[in-house]
Amino acid sequence: MMKLPAINLEATHFIALMSHSVPSIASLTDHTLLRPEATRADILQLCREAREYNFASVCVNAYWVPVAAAELAASHVKICTVVGFPLGATSTAAKVAETEAALAAGAQEIDMVQNIGALRGGDSQAVREDIEAVVKTAHRHGAIVKVILETALLNDDQKTAACLLAKAGGADFVKTSTGFSSAGATVHDVALMRRAVGPAMGVKASGGIRTLEDFQKMVAAGATRIGASSSVKIVEAARSAPQLAESGT
Q: How far apart are the C-alpha atoms of 32 and 85, rounded to whole Å?
């Protein structure tokens, strides 16, 4: 197994987040609805909640980007969408086309699925070039890119390799999971990803994060963004926690 250098996770960012004020929890959260059966009414409700709680973004499927962009135009909430989702097995050209269309519709953050099969098969060049192409397209429009590894399908060496390829490809974040595979984020994987990319790059934990305790464990392990569909429940739990409620609502 590849040995990674230790990273000091007691940097100012992580110390500050350990106390987790309610606003800081919201500001780290991508309020997510990627279910295929989601309706327009569901998306509008997601956007109302995001605006009320001031989440970092809403994460929706590309079809709903124009709806979310219109609904949140007067807010600080970003519009995030997914590319190559959920398998990562579309061509690079298709991922770039998806990215361009999403950006034109109002997306500001792109969560792309890496080419998982190419990664597992050892084709590092294909993985990196796939990421680079999407990153160049997004960055040209001022958008950021998070690369979804789908950690449930990888061993630790593969997770590390994927992180390093995402970093080399210019991505802004690495992300654990689509939420559509056999498992989601784990503390182990988030900590491994943080060690692999170092202290400066973003790490997003997603998949199965349903409680305030889950949220806190992921941030303590090194996550700087959380993707969750239970975002409102998490923030409300924080409001009920005396030590957090005192630090702001």
A: 14
Dihedral (CA of 42, 43, 47, 53) sign: positive
* Active-site residue, from 111, 130, 172, 189: 111
Provide the β-strand partners of residue 94. Answer: none
> What are the mean pLDDT values of the chain's consecutive 10-residue runs (249 residues total)?
43 46 93 98 98 98 98 97 98 98 98 98 98 98 98 98 98 98 97 98 98 97 98 96 58
Does 159 qualify as catalytic in the annotation?
no
Structural domains in the chain?
Answer: 12-239 (3.20.20.70)
Among candidate residues 42, 28, 50, the one with its CA nearest the CA of residue 227: 28
Q: Are 190 and 161 within 8 A, CB to CB?
A: no
CA of residue 118 relative to chain centroid, distance: 21
Task: Give catalytic status of residue 204 as yes or no.
Answer: yes
Contact (CB, 8 A) for 7 and 198: yes
pTM: 0.91
